[in-house]
Amino acid sequence: MWGNESMEKENRSANFYDVIRERRSARSYDPSIKITEEEIKELLEEAMLAPSRTNLNPWRFMVFTNPAEKAKLLPIAFGQQQVVDASAVIVVLGDMEAYTAANDDHINQRAVDAGFMTNEIKDILSNSVKGYYESASEQSKKESQMLDGGLVAMQLMLAAKARGYDTVPMLGYSVEQFRKEFNVPENLVNILMIAVGKANGPAYPTVRRGVDEVIYWNGTWITANN
What we know:
Layout: H1 5-12, H2 16-22, H3 37-47, E1 59-64, H4 67-76, H5 82-85, E2 88-95, H6 101-113, H7 119-133, H8 138-162, E3 166-170, H9 175-181, E4 188-197
Antiparallel strand pairs: 1-2, 2-4, 3-4
């Protein structure tokens, strides 16, 4: 069953508050549901509207839709069936080579061409990025990757839910085996894996702490209720 244009347009108008309240992690998927390559591209374009540090767009994505390739993920993901049954598995990675003035200049030149930025501002930003990242540690860069990757992953899951798809974020897989199996370049950092498709049934409901248990107002640290 392939998504049609009218359904896509209908899902794009989904109420934001319904999307954030109805999104749950689904671990059982209907294997008969397929997602087109074009729709996956659109999902990723929507996800990439997420912010990233100094707008360096460090995200990279490995997308698995082919059944034979998804089957390779099964032992890597410790036998979690969703990697086989979901319509697609998207692995979010971060490019450590994104933290350069050249990349910043490449991205911001597009902003200049679009009339969003002057060349003078572009040069100021490029010099700023160069000055900061030339002295930044690898650990600091990796921490930025985790933050930026988390932001783009959450936006991807919400965009999928707005279109009527379900997702589950997955940290439970062997990064070492994954990198070896798919020859992941050294400059790419693994962040997480996301299964995308149509759940076989409602995902298990979950609960959260009450908001008053997790807020500390104006710098005052008061022990929250257990």
